[in-house]
Fold this protein.
Amino acid sequence: MSDVYILGAGIHPFGRFDKSYEAIGSEAAGDALRDAGVAWRDIQAAYLSRMYLPATSGARILRRLGGTDIPIVDIEAACASGGAALRQAVLAIRSGEVDLALVCGVEKMPRGFMDPSMIYAPWQIELGMSMNPSYWSMRAMRHMHEFGTTELQIAKVAYKNHRNSVHNPNAMYRKPFSIEEILASPMVCDPIRLLEICAPNDGAAAVVVASEKKARELGAREIRIAAVSHTIARYSADFRCPADSMSATANNPGPTEVTAHQAFAQAGMSPTDIDCFEVQDTDAFCEVEIYEELGLCPLGEAGRLIDEGATEIGGRFPVNMSGGLISKGEPVGASHLGQVVELVSQLRGQSGPRQVEGARVGLAHVLGAGGNCAVTILQA
Amino acid sequence: MANDGGRRSIREGLLIGPLDDLAQVHLCGSVCKTCGETSLGVSEICPNCGGVDLARKALADEGTLWTYTVVRHKPPGNYHGPDPFKPFGLGLVELPDGLRVMAPIEADIDSLAIGMPLRIRPYVLRTEDAGREVVAFAYRAA
């Protein structure tokens, strides 16, 4: 397979803005083009990931950069939308038809719990089964029961991510919280608390990707996409919204395990080859579970990994240097590309106080509704 | 067709038995004759193997709590619980049929514990404009 490179990255801060999604998205796309040193008229295909925006959002956003007749496609795969879009761009380049593509993720979401009618059937909503955090919480409760994982260990993940966010100008919340403050914050769905979950918000992130030929021509082979993988959960392999039941007998591996396995195979790497990780922390427990599914530790031992500080910046497996979704917020269509932008900054050594020393390889992971999961690995 | 007494199930194919006699109403499952998986509700295609030879069955009325949470805030959208809102238990109930069903748990939220025995309770959730009653389900301590 031919190599694909990231030439440039751009991000519009994640937060809440009195600004249209078209403005937020086109700013991030423009920044990515400038960072790549590439003109909009040279882009041959564009992919726009979003979940809560209207039809043809991609064209509405990117036309602001100038008239064009290239294919612009909107892509939706819940929380993995950005990974699905990046994968389409990589495939287009590998097909040989396209040498330069733009991938942009954008979202603008109302405050509070997400609109349940986007995900759940009316009967689930009537019975109160339509709150995303309830799914995460039930997984956490079971993990605590089976493996002895504690509320304190879950709180430590939120503590780490909030603390990392202080150094990220693109995060929505940039305030450190003590463990005591986190454990005293209101319970949303037991055992998950308010300071342990992410909030839907606005934001955008974009990258310019190129074929090896084009990257060579432009002298820009700094960051290679070593892998990009997207899967949905196998039968009953994942209890995530909007599931109404699960098998007690099927024993399929979870979507993170499957997607990461594919990505590691593409890259010819294993977890110990990764210098830094950005992973889905819709809630603090989600990150705990992902440590195990990515293979950073054996099943049931994520609590110990946290206690050892292994996932701190400076630890063996630095995770969510950006502050994660817990502090950035989750503009669904933009979240994965936001992670990719963070990895580009890390691999370029431009991350300031949140820099992982000498980072050469980074992994980004998202996971959400329907068990949609995407994993991208970048190599400098 | 079973006598529905002018009632309907909150979700088509979710319940089995005469809806005018709630004591005889059970959750409905579909057993795949190809792979053996049992799934919730009436299915024409097995969600595991894609097999099309499925048999309907009444699922067991009793199970145990496999995991749970307490919903502390009023769920968004058209939630039909008590007004004013009261925090409630929500869990996955493991049935001997080989599946776990998500359901509200009608028990004191402080008494919820993984492994507790539960029994289904079909009930009338609300009456539609046309006068038809909508039957839903929950679990309570067995």
